[in-house]
């Protein structure tokens, strides 16, 4: 952590630079942020169309950083909600991306994309970022830097494993959850629309304790 202008921020190797993926060399290269390979917008080329031709849905194949730059002129400031599920940086191998990047590479990739995604959001927009424990703490600081700590809304914990079976008998701690970090673009995005779900009458509300000093029957159980 470094203290600059009275603010705490996360620092890492080559933070002032951007990353360019060279498909020929199949490696990431540190480049200046003004390098045209990462700074100039790209044009999307339509290859094929499936289903409803009038649909606005788009599936883009390619570097998502370049894809975002291509979409920004048309969608900047118009998106109300963004959900992303980036690589967790677990060290596992996948066919289309490396999930075991060195921390500085992973953080730079996330920072550059989050800065772009912020430009897509409306003033009342929100972003939901799915991550696990591997980079959660560091990513939270990057999101604070990009969106502002005051725009942090909450962290949603998702249960992914039950503490049962063989895991429960192991002699070590195990992971049971993933996380979704939630940020708004501004104060206008912090209010949530309430959604009421109709529910039938709960018969248990008709049961009550007559005497706290006795064990009495309530419903189908004993108290």
TrEMBL record:
InterPro entries linked: DNA_methylase_N4/N6, DNA_methylase_N6_adenine_CS, SAM-dependent_MTases_sf
* Start and end residues of each DNA methylase N-4/N-6 domain: 79-209
Q: Which UniProt keywords apply?
A: Methyltransferase, Transferase
Pfam family of this protein, just one? Answer: N6_N4_Mtase
Instruction: Name one molecular function that GO assigns to this entry.
Output: DNA binding
Checking Gene3D superfamilies in the record gives: Vaccinia Virus protein VP39
**Signal peptide as annotated in the record:** none
The answer, when asked if Transport is one of the entry's keywords, is no
Concerning SUPFAM superfamilies, the annotation shows:
S-adenosyl-L-methionine-dependent methyltransferases
GO terms for biological process, alphabetical = methylation
Keyword RNA-binding carried by entry: no
Q: Which family does it belong to?
A: Belongs to the N(4)/N(6)-methyltransferase family.
Q: What is this protein called?
A: DNA methylase N-4/N-6 domain-containing protein
Which organism is this protein's natural source?
A: Candidatus Woesebacteria bacterium GW2011_GWA1_37_7
């Amino acid at each position: 952590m470094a203290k600059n202008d009275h603010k705490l921020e996360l620092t890492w190797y080559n933070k002032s630079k951007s990353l360019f993926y060279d498909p020929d060399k199949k490696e990431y290269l540190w480049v200046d942020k003004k390098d045209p390979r990462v700074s100039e917008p790209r044009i999307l080329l339509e290859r094929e169309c499936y289903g409803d031709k009038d649909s606005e849905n788009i599936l883009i194949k390619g570097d998502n950083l370049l894809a975002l730059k291509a979409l920004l002129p048309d969608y900047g400031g118009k998106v109300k909600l963004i959900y992303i599920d980036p690589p967790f940086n677990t060290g596992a191998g996948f066919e289309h991306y490396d999930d075991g990047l060195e921390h500085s590479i992973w953080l730079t990739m996330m920072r550059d994309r989050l800065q772009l995604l912020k430009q897509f959001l409306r003033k009342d927009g929100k972003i939901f970022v799915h991550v696990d424990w591997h980079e959660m703490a560091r990513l939270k600081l990057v999101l604070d830097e990009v969106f502002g700590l005051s725009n942090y809304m909450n962290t949603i914990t998702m249960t992914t494993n039950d503490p049962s079976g063989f895991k429960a008998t192991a002699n070590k701690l195990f992971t049971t959850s993933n996380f979704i970090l939630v940020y708004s673009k501004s104060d206008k995005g912090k209010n949530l629309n309430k959604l009421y779900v109709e529910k039938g009458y709960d018969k248990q509300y008709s049961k009550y304790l007559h005497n706290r000093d006795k064990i009495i029957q309530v419903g189908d159980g004993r108290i």
